[in-house]
Amino acid sequence: MKIIIVGAGEVGCYLARHFSSGGHDVCLVERSEPMARAQQDRLDVRVIYGSGSVAHILREAGADGCDLFLAVTRDDSTNLVAALLARRMGARRTVARVHAAVLRDESVFDYRRAFRLDLMFSSERLAAVELAKHIRNPDQPVVEEIARGRIELQQFPLRADSLACGKPLREIGFPDRVRVGWIRRAERNIVPAADETLQEGDLLTVFGEVELMDKYVRRLRTGHSRPGRRSVVIAGGGEIALALAQMLTACGFDVRVIEADAERVAELAYLLPRVTVIHADPTSLEALREERVGECDCFVAAMPDDEDNLMTCLQAGNMGAPDCLTVVQREDYADAIGTAATIIGIRAAVSPREAVRRDLMRFVTAKRYHVLVRLEGGAQVIHFAVRADSPMAGVPVSQLELPVGVVLVAHIHETDARVPAAGDTFSAGDTVYALVEDAALDRFSRILRHGPGV
């Protein structure tokens, strides 16, 4: 694939390095001449000096014939304008990086449609999604956040002490937006109907809207739906902390944020009415003791400085915090901490750059779909864009001719993400996620290319 990346900062260079090592033709555009010259010497990619929001620079880079255009500078306006120019020149897919505040503004204005974007992302929000996944499901072998973090998929075995054992699904009382989509039983794969009776040892794959999953999945695991509130302390009040706190409070967590800057504390208190925001230095041992971080269920270090995050996690662990997570900005630190995490008492280190790379990999394929995750038992979750000529466009879900072994698990339309219901329809440009058994993948991919009559 031919890929153009505007912005030779940390995110842009990280993506350029990974895509180039994967055999793709990468061109990097950078408006700072010293940075452009430095990356030309470091990276095995073509580097152009100039502004990504200037048409003749984009034409020189080859935007009129590129497969994927990524605008990932630190400036939202530059990224949005560059992506729109590239699209009008003929770029097949365009992606723009923005700050998390712009994503929060999507309910007021549809930036994606206005700037003709395939994706608009915030590296901070993607990192928060990864952190939330670890916090909400510390013991789950498979947990995936999909559809911009609004839909969750979990896979786990049904235990003998679950009150769901021996009951048909219809008696468990799931809402429309939470479903058991797939069961692996011995050597059999089952796409269950409502009268399917659950058995001990069934490997269940459950998906649903994040706010509902905790309550209803617990019925399958233990039969109980009202756990005690779990507490999380977040050190640092940046955009990652803000997004993470919003996600966790929506799921019933008791969240405290410790932030040193008084103005930011006031802003967070306004944006997070259900969160306790504390004005203190989160790197201070005295402040951590005063806030009794050793008594929390999970401690997250989400400050800008990697060294501060690492040391604060170690201090929280020494005080008794059972679960410590950290954000890691530097690529070399991420590798080192990831390798030694369990040794030093940190359960996971989340890199915003790696979270971005994972999210963008769906576009780096020549196929009509991209594999998001492979599941135990012979199935995978894929996602694909609905094209104007797709046999799925405009047809209610209940009338789609899907092969046996295919379950639709999520649907993104403009800014809305949900679990598909029987009466929902898909429009050109929508993104659809599907759980597909390996045996059904070839047939389903042919349907995506040619329609059901093949």
Provide a brief overview of the structure.
The chain has helices at 10-21, 33-42, 55-61, 76-89, 100-104, 111-114, 123-136, 210-221, 239-250, 262-271, 285-290, 306-319, 331-340, 352-360, 438-450; strands at residues 2-6, 25-30, 46-49, 68-71, 94-97, 119-121, 142-146, 151-157, 178-185, 188-190, 203-209, 231-235, 254-259, 276-279, 298-301, 324-327, 348-350, 370-375, 379-385, 406-413, 416-418, 431-437.
Summarize the topology.
Elements: E1 2-6, H1 10-21, E2 25-30, H2 33-42, E3 46-49, H3 55-61, E4 68-71, H4 76-89, E5 94-97, H5 100-104, H6 111-114, E6 119-121, H7 123-136, E7 142-146, E8 151-157, E9 178-185, E10 188-190, E11 203-209, H8 210-221, E12 231-235, H9 239-250, E13 254-259, H10 262-271, E14 276-279, H11 285-290, E15 298-301, H12 306-319, E16 324-327, H13 331-340, E17 348-350, H14 352-360, E18 370-375, E19 379-385, E20 406-413, E21 416-418, E22 431-437, H15 438-450
Parallel strand pairs: 1-2, 1-4, 2-3, 4-5, 5-6, 12-13, 12-15, 13-14, 15-16, 16-17
Antiparallel strand pairs: 7-8, 8-11, 9-10, 9-11, 18-19, 19-22, 20-21, 20-22
Helix pairs in contact: 1-14, 7-9, 7-14
